Amino acid sequence: MSLVNFTTREITCKIVYYGPGRSGKTTNLQYIYGRVPEGRRGRMVSLATKTDRTLFFDFLPLELGQISGFTTRFQLYTVPGQVYYNATRKLVLQGADGVVFVADSQARQLDENIESLQNLQINLLDNGMDVRDLPVVYQYNKQDLPQDLILSKRELDDALNFRQRPSFQADALSGSGVFETLKGVSELVLRRLSEVSTA
Amino acid sequence: MRTTRAVEGWTLVPLERFIMESGARLALLMTPAGQVLAQHGFTRAVDVMSAAALGAAIVSSTGEIAKMMDEPEFRALNHQGVEHGIFLAGFETLRGRLLALVVYGTDSSMGLVELFFQTLKAELVAACPVEERREPVLAADFEHELNASLGSLFGR
Fold it and tell me: What's the whole-model pTM score?
């Protein structure tokens, strides 16, 4: 739930990058961390295994700047994508203001994407949240791979994005689409604050 | 230098008193999602935002282990280091569950922190007002400023 401090005029929102294992959630945060000036971001915390797979979460605080006179901060989290880390995925989702669902565009990963999306809905419900009310955007990552290996944006929208939320093609390694995805989810999250405060 | 910041003003007096009486270096109040509601003390002791995110994760994960063992939630968690220790605990208020993360050094102790935490908890529960009416925060045409902010963030 967004925190609004009327005294110091600050807003803090929590955004969670969700999706199957190796879809590129951590890569999104690493790209953002590398691009954003040091004064506008905090330390990136990664709780990872020895092989750099996310164990609990990655965490990156960002300062967007002044919006409507409020200093606006986003706290970006990733969840571990591997199936057996569901308990920690559910914990990281607590209090999320928005979700970026990072899908792997490879055709052979479609079942994993669908399974992860279903898992997102179950975990949101377990946390007392309704996916229909939550700002969610889709990122179709790895679109740089050869065309015969990946699904198109239209095919992925058909398979995953049946609520017709904003969706973005990306290649998180090179950074393509990372900015657009963050902008997309930011707009949805802040739109809610222009309608009603959740302080 | 001691720093005090609070999203919710009613938290400040109990928090300041707690730091003074317990001798702790820093106390953070946060939501179960890891967002900081208030802080008082020597913020150089830790990176506040990261500590809050990690502290909330510790409380959540140990809470799940307690559930697996059919235990009521763990009352408090202590991690004692050589120079510093941390104390973590959750409690219910009219505004829902809150968590406290306390960092203490050699000029305090686990016992002192636990002792004065009980007072802090009681004072916060008593001071907590009911939730205020929700009103729009941002102007309806915030997108222009958002685009400019994100553009400068990514050097575009």
Answer: 0.88
